[in-house]
Write a structure and sequence with these properties.
By secondary structure, this protein is α+β, with helices and mostly antiparallel strands. The protein has 6 helices and 16 strands. It has a 5-stranded antiparallel sheet. Strands 1, 2, 4 and 5 form a 4-stranded antiparallel sheet that branches. The chain has a 4-stranded antiparallel sheet with strand order 3-13-11-12. It is 30% helix and 29% strand.
């Protein structure tokens, strides 16, 4: 890997890690999740990074892809478990990291996910296969008496691409990829008190434009959204980053969906509405792997 690219990955990871660690003080009962999201995103840019994707705040059974909208007034409560998934980038090179914070019980659930991540990282080196990682994640989480969410995976990272190959499964699959030197991956074990499966909630608040699809657009709203997404080089965004009203944003998204020019990230929730915990790091594969999303003063 080119030295300059490596430095950008490390810088992005350090920024994401610092903000992740700082956000622990924001997550407390009575706090508005919109305020939390805006503060996290503000800090990423303040520290010299750019937003790789809207901060995900998943409460309790919500596993992924939930971000607050403008004007939303959802307050955290005692007993919640709160997943914060953060992405920063430097010139398109991404640091992706997540943490779960408990406002009540479920410390064992958090520890299951956290330990699974740490045990998986210990295995990493060129030549390791993804099923070896998956087996360790699954065994670790199940040793705590919980289940792994089988249809959520980690993933590769590339420039301006948050979900590149390879997939890093949390359970053994038929696609057993061998990691090679300089692969950049995000490992994110999801542990749950439920059956270990997520479902779409048929609502999306995070979107990416498909930059290879350039059809004619009729509405101003659709053109504005698509232009915004192109300027982000296809990285995800959300409605509160644009000046459009909620109604106009939805109209624009509707046209873009009809013309297959946008990808919606549907909110994912545990199928039985059970609790979910998640921890995540970004790692560059080397003989001695580089975990970019660890922050040291």
């Amino acid at each position: 890997m080119d030295k300059e690219i490596l430095e950008k990955y490390i810088k992005a990871g350090r920024i994401a890690a610092k903000v992740r660690d700082e956000c622990k003080s924001l997550v407390k009962p009575g706090k508005n999740i919109l305020e939390i999201a805006e503060e996290i995103e503000r800090r990423i840019t303040e520290l010299g990074g750019e937003l790789a994707f809207p901060v995900n705040i998943g409460i309790n059974n919500i596993a992924a892809h939930y971000t607050p909208e403008k004007g939303e007034d959802i307050l955290l409560r005692e007993g919640d478990i709160v997943k914060i998934d953060i992405g920063a980038h430097v010139d398109g090179y991404i640091g992706d990291t997540a943490i779960t914070i408990s406002l009540g019980e479920y410390e064992d659930l958090l520890e299951a996910s956290r330990k699974a991540l740490n045990e998986a990282i210990k295995l990493l080196k060129p030549g390791i296969k993804t099923n070896e990682i998956a087996e360790t994640i699954q065994k670790t989480i199940e040793s705590f008496g919980f289940r792994v969410i089988s249809n959520l995976t980690g993933h590769g990272l590339e420039r301006f691409n948050i979900h590149a190959d390879p997939q890093i499964p949390n359970v053994i699959t038929s696609n057993n990829y061998m990691l090679k030197e300089d692969d950049v991956i995000a490992i994110e074990p999801f542990a749950t008190t439920g059956i270990g499966f997520v479902k779409d909630l048929d609502e999306a608040r995070i979107f990416s434009v498909l930059i290879d699809k350039r059809n004619m657009l009729r509405s101003m709203e659709a053109r504005e959204i698509y232009s915004f997404g192109i300027k982000r080089n296809g990285l995800p965004f959300t409605s509160r980053w644009l000046e459009l009203s909620k109604i106009k944003f939805r109209l624009g998204i509707k046209e873009l969906k009809m013309k297959d020019m946008i990808y919606p990230y549907y909110i994912l929730a545990e199928k039985e509405e059970a609790m979910v915990a998640q921890f995540e790091h970004t790692i560059i594969i080397k003989d001695k792997p580089i975990v970019t999303t660890i922050y040291d003063e």
